[in-house]
Amino acid sequence: MRRLGGFYLLAVAVAALPFIFPDNYFVTVVGVSAGLHAILAVSLNLLMGYAGQISLGHAAFFGMGAYTSAILTTRYGWNPWPTILVGLAFTGVIAYIVARPILKLKGHYLAMATLGLGIIVHIVIVQMGWLTGGPDGLGSIPTLSLFGWTVDTDLRWYAVIGTLLMLVIWLALNLIDSRSGRALRALHGSEVAAEMMGIDTAATKTGVFVLAALIASLAGSVFAHQQAFVSPGSFDFFFSIELVTMVVLGGMASTYGAVLGAIILTFLPELLVVFEDYEVMIFGAILMGMMIFLPQGLFIGFQDLLRKFTHRRAVTKKEESSHGVA
Amino acid sequence: MALLDVKDLTISFGGVTAIADLHFEVPESQVYAVIGPNGAGKTTLFNMLSGIYKPNEGSIKFQGKEIVGRMPHQVAEMGVSRTFQNLQMFFNMSVLDNVKVGCHLRTRSPIWSAALRLPSILKEERQAQAWAREALIFCGLEAYIDQPADSLPYGVLKRVEIARALAAQPKLLLMDEPAAGLNDTETVEMRNLIRRLSETGISVLLVEHNMGLVMQVSDRILVIDYGSRLAEGLPEEIQNNPKVIEAYLGGEVQYAV
Amino acid sequence: MFDQILQFLLTGITVGSTYALVGLGFAIIYNASDVVNFSQGEFVMIGAMSAVALTAGDTGLPLWVAAIAAVLITMLVGMALQRFAIAPARGASVVTTIIITIGASIFLRGIALLVWGKDLFPLPSFSGDEPIQIGNATILPQSLWVMGGAALLVFGAQYFFNHTTLGKAILACSCNKTAAHLVGINVSIMLLVAYGLSAALGAMAGILVAPITFTSYDTGVMLGLKGFSAAILGGMGNPMGAVAGGLLLGLIESLAAGLISSGYKDAIGFIILLLVLFFRPSGLFGKASVDRV
Questions:
Q1: Which residue of A129, C78, C211, C221 is 20 to 30 Å from A70, comparing CA positions?
Q2: Which sequence ranges are marked TM in the entry (chain C) (predicted)?
């Protein structure tokens, strides 16, 4: 119960918001974007925060899902549901193929390789106009519907994406607190020690990379059906950086932190709309300032403060009680 | 048959031979120490034994099976675990989780069943928890179980590394300088811990600079110098071996404890 | 066909010279502080944009004065970056420093956007726009400026690091900070100098190439990435490798654009980079390293 306490709290909040603020633009429109961003941030956080493998190209997998759905529905008239599965399969295969060679790299090299991957995918999307619509993108993507229930209002999309987000958070929380999750964190802590404990680090990295890519692809497909329009701009290098910022802002290696980062970064431009010209600068300043002054991120930074406080008390107690033992 | 049988082991880096033609056998259930001056190639030897480096020549047989050519995680699977000279702690995790990672090979559940939290997971988690606790208690660390690893002093972390290695239930434990950086009290605790370890039937291969500790816990000792075998035998034989005394700085064997 | 190839080669060397300078700047900072500076491209942009701004209008400065002033401005920005963003985070992880410099680059771009807007600006050519005929290929006089300038700067940097006390001191810092400190080198000042120098190189690259490519607040992004690619191709931490990597990348892109498709030229550059990373992560001219445990 304690393990999932935060999860239930968040679930209740997500469910209650549209009732507390009915027909509110910030809930059902910005909220939906925030939800999608949160899904992406949670997936990237598995890779970056927990497994310690930086990726500056996560938007590529988001784009693959989105474009698979967009192309199959608009150009070939498919039903939306199977396109999501095809998107997952396609993204999964690509991610699996590139994962091994890419994740052999570390630090700067890994950053550059993932960045390069993201840029290549973006260029391909722009250039393959006959299929992707090129820079103009693809429009009139049909929405999702299930047994006659068509997702055609902002509120319904809020429900779908809210549910999906909670599902992804639940999966991530379960995963982290398990054998596989510990393997991920261990390889972040010390790759050589992880290997010596019997963890196949190369396979584990590949696994988490593919998993993160799959979640991103799913988010991409949903995004395409929700927006009814996709264009290359949504999947460029800057969006990858934005996702990294979300993870970093909330706090690496914290699922709730990633969600918090995504929410803040989605709402910030809405609130800064008055200072539109300053948006880029403020965005850069936040990214830089956070990393310099609070590298653990908002969520963890706050938690750390709490922990330091409670921990100090615990240690003094322990010292008192352990005097007799030694 | 010896537990570990090393033959003709040679490795060089960029033309410099670090280990040359080394051979030795580690018997079952013993504490076997490898000593030698700094730079003699002890850690390099450990890195080959655990599959991190691949030797240029020679063989390393563990229970009759070849280690050379296997990845470290495959070597771990054979029943070899190790600790490190410079701590390789998972500082991003709690002490308990660190040691639970040690149970990785004793648990099997795949990633998807963990993500869906199937009932089998709960059972396995409880089991891992129990094993980790057991290892921590064995190493005298019950007081630190729920603490984050990055908040603990060096001496404690050294023991957490041992607990983590123990949680894997190894047949052979490679310990790379377990007493380095410890104060006198901690060194005595470490000595007792190594003794208790070998009493449980685990074989220990020990690299250590503290001669007092080595002489007190080891059943046999191998001395290497410039990557070659200098001497091998019982502690008393080693202590009185003129070649060994020579290698150690004009004949002064240091006793630290 | 041959003439065409010659044309591609000339273009490639011009573009490659710019990449080489940015890559060289990358390598200098990486050598001095182990930081991969993702805002290297912004130095190029700030150099070019400042020069444009200083020459503009009725009260505009002569081109050469503006160029010198622009280089100085960029040097200040580079030093400020080191002092206020990199230095406070000393000892941070690789991921952290990467994100700091990415943040810095976005920040600088944001300021440029505020000051100069989104327009594309030209800088006057140094010596006219009359193309020069070489066989059946042509080359702009400005391209010669770019090539010559780059060559001069590269050799200058080479001389600086190998034959001057200051240059050697910076190299000493990169080898061993504590030792450098012990022999009386002021490490923090050396780091400032390294960033200043790297920024100056970027600014000069920007000013040299701006008459051909024009400049806007976001020209630094791609150039920075190309410079990073050049540095990786050549082997990180090897300044002359970065120069060679830059020229090579410029040539590859130019040939790819001419022979395959101009839309895919950047993609081809990055694919080659990925292949090098996969099969020879130490770069084409770098030495392999052994992990220590």
A1: C221
A2: 6-29, 63-81, 93-116, 144-161, 182-210, 230-252, 264-283
